[in-house]
Every structure is written in structure tokens, then in C-alpha cells.
Amino acid sequence: MKLNRRAFVGGAIAAPFLARSGFAQGSASVLRVIPHADLKNIDPIWTTAYISRNHGYMVYDTLFAMDANLKPQPQMVDKWEESSDKKTWTFVLRDGLSFHDGKPVTADDCAASLIRWSKRDPMGQQLFSIVESCKGRDAKTLEIKISRPYGLMLDSIGKISSNVPFIMPKALAETDAFKQVESAVGSGPFIFKKEEWVPGSKVVYVKNKDYVPRKEPASAAAGGKIAKVDRVEWLYIPDSTTCMNALMSGEIDYYEQVPGDLAPVLAKAPGVKIEVLDPIGAQGMMRFNSMVAPTDNEMVRRAIVRATNQRDMLAAAVGNPDYYKFCESLFPCGTPMESKAGLDLIRPPSKDEAKKMLKEAGYKGDKLVILQPTDIPISSAFAQVAAKTLRDIGMNVDLQAMDWSSVTSRRAKKDPVDKGGWNMFPTWWIGGDLLNPLTNAAMIANPDKAWPGWPNDKKMEELRQAFANAATLDEQKAAAAAVQQRSIETAQYINLGTYFVPVGYRDNVKGMIPSPVQFFWNMEKTS
After folding, report:
1. pTM for the structure as a whole
2. Is the CA virtual torsion 25, 28, 29, 32 positive or negative?
3. Distances in whole angstroms, Cα of residue 210 to Cα of each of 79, 93, 99, 101, 186
4. Cβ-contact 164, 44 below 8 angstroms
5. Nearest to 44 by CA among 165, 127, 125
6. Is domain 5-37+189-276+504-525 in CATH 3.10.180.10, yes or no?
7. CATH number corresponding to 64-173
8. What is the pLDDT of residues 183-206, one digit of tens each?
9. Is the model's pLDDT at 307 over the cut of 70?
10. Distance separating alpha carbons of residues 465 and 463, to the nearest angstrom
């Protein structure tokens, strides 16, 4: 196999980089992983960052967890009961639960953890808007009283992605939700070795020998969490070619997110396998600022949506059709809430129709600012294609290049574009975060609680509430369809299509769990 210059240079710098990271060949009980990002924050409630979420799954446990069919299953809970009037829920913890410091997990720990989570997570906020009390009835029994029946109780406390309602010791959980906890004492299958943590380089977890897993087989986030290696090391390497060469040489065992352009090379490398573990995929998204001209005009936003061709976006950003698919539903295709509602408003993509809509909207050539995160290739490509598309329909586009950290700072600004504001930015979410109108942060339409973009639509909030109140799956589907219809009508954002990021691993690594989220229990290395 021939390697290009990029691969050769990457291989030349791989060894010294890994040596500085404390990398050593050897024991099959050590799983060496290149994560998708550097772990900067260890509080998965304070931030929605996926790397912090993955850290949370290593260290903490949850009351319920989503299985491979996206159904909530008991995790820390042994048995539970809903009262006849559906206003009181009781959860009895299973035996053998203890924190890493040896203290038993109690219902008070669970109550404090849920209360803190509810202050940061949209689904938690929705649930706790009707919670009258959340407390321990006794050491092992958690009681939650609500003001009215709520069909999404288990889905809420068992949600699979950010923010996950992880259970912390009460002393940690009583930390202000808008301040970070300083330690990571959980009850999960691995223990965080804070003294070995080197931000920007290395994170270490060791097997929690006192953890008592459930007896059911692993299924996504649910089932038995069995740590089959003694130690997991996350070794952050920002250069993708260095990552590729480290995997090919066997210096690392697992590469969490393989770039599409490197996947064909790795697929041919001896001893390496490439696989997509996330059956749902990620959804590209272009977010509008609904407060700042010209995208404060709904008709302008709708014109932009009509001009956008999802297939062009995916071809440019992902390239390899093996790793993307066309999906217009705002809720991921293949999941329970997938819908065709409102799609007639965006079909077919047409620049000519978009030009007419812009004229009807009264667009007069106002500057439109698109933020371009140059350090995230897929999002950068989304921004570039969007800029060309909007120029083609006669818009005055200012494409501003910056790194992702700068985008996250700029997107918090509500100023006009001539004072540092913005109109659009590209991003992506895993499908597990977009499963319904409550998990999808981009659908919140209360500007005081909304994700950057700040739509203000009372009707949308009523429709989201109707979904929360739905008692059956059929009612939920109907309510979700109404939410999608409204989201497309008001053009909250653009769905840029679904894509899949493969993982790469040595062929002696076994036990990966198909899921929207990366888990490291059940994984092992054979000799």
C-alpha cells in the first residue's frame, strides 16, 4: 500500500507525540483510544459537549437508559411504580450500588442529581415544570410527585445524550448547575484518575472492581455495563494523519471518529477494521438567527431553505456516498417520530423559486453573515456551499472564517451584523439528540430559553407542550408531525442531511456496542 506525503509526515511525527503522551505498548488489559475531542470539562451537566458526555458515561450511571430500540430500560432502578392517578412515581434502587469512594448510592443522591440536571437540560426543564417534589422516601426509594400525568417520565430520566441525567453524590449534585463540579466521583463501571489527567493530551480511567452490572445483555446505553479491560486511556491527537498512522502501527487500539478521506486508506490497512456503529447517524444543520436582519424575516429564511439542496451539501461536505444519506425529516429517518409533515414546503429545492420568495419578502441586498468553522471540515464545507447558494439567488453574503470556539462565542451575540452579530452558522447533532421535539434544542421557540438563534413563536411552544402531554405513541407521532410542520413553516433551521462517521480499530478489539453514543464497556482486546 502506498501512502501519500500527508500520511508519511503524519507517521514521522506519530511516535514522538505518543511517547510524550506516556504511550507504551503492552498489556491487553489497556485499551488505548483516540477520542473525537480533548476533554476540557469533566461536568456533563454543565456542558452539552459530547466528549464530556462520553466521560460521564465512563464514570456515572443513570436511573434508566435507552436500549437499541430507543426504549427506556431500568439501569440503576430495580422496580418502579406509577400511582393510579398517574401523579406519583416511585423508583426502588437495585442492590449493590455504590460510589467510587465506597459510599452507597441513596435516593437522596438521585433526587439531587435530577434536580441539578433539570436546570440545564431542555427535557429536564419540561419535566420539572410539573414536578411538585423529588425526594428520597427512604434510602433506596425515590419519589417524584407531579401536578398532572406525564407520559415522558421514563424517556426523560433515561435520555441517551446531552444532557444525560447522570447520578452524582448529593454533595456534588448540590453544586450550582451553572458552575462546574470539580471532581468526578460516580458509581459507573470506570473510575476517573484525575491525578493522571493531562488536558490536551491524556485521560485515564480504570475498572471499577466494585461495580455490579445488570444481568441483561448490553443494548445501546442499557443492559450490563461490564468493564472488560483494566484501564482505558484517551490519547488526544489533533492531527488526523497522525491518528491514522498510530492505528495502522498498532500504537493505539481504537480511533473514535475517522475522517471520510482517510477511511478508504484504513480500510485497506492490515490489522485494521472500519465500521459505522451509529445506526441513526448525525444530522447537519444550518441555524438561523431569528432576531437579526435580514434573517429576522420569516420569508427570507424560507427562501434560503427553498434554495438549499441537501444532496449538494452532503456531496461537498462528506463526499463518500457510503457515509451519508438523503433524509428530509427533521426527526431522524428510521426513528419513531420520522415524519413527512411540511416537506411539501421545501420540495423541490429551487433557486428560481427562492429568488421569487426573496422578492416577495422585500429583501433589498442587506448583508448576511455566515460563520464558517474552519477547523471542522464538514461544517466548513456546509458554510461554503451555503454561501455560494445564497449568492446565486442574489444575496449579499459575508462568509466569516474562524475556529469553532470562536463560532460558539460569536453565536451568543444578539447584536446586528454591523456590530459583530451573525445570521447563520452550520453545525451538527447526533440523531440521538433529535429524536423528538423536546430533545431537539433547535425547536425551542421561547427566546428566553432557546438555543442561539432565539426564535419567538408561541404556537410552536404550544405544539411542543402538546407533544409533552401526549399519552400514547400515536398521539406523540401526531404531535411531533405538527411540530415539524411548524418548524418548516417558520424556518427555524435547515436540515442538511444525515451522515455517518466510521470508527477505526485494530482487529483484536471486540465488543463494540452499536449506538448513537460511544461506550467503552463491553469492549475487550484479545491476544
Report:
1. 0.87
2. positive
3. 22, 16, 9, 10, 12
4. yes
5. 165
6. no
7. 3.90.76.10
8. 999 999 999 999 999 998 999 999
9. yes
10. 5
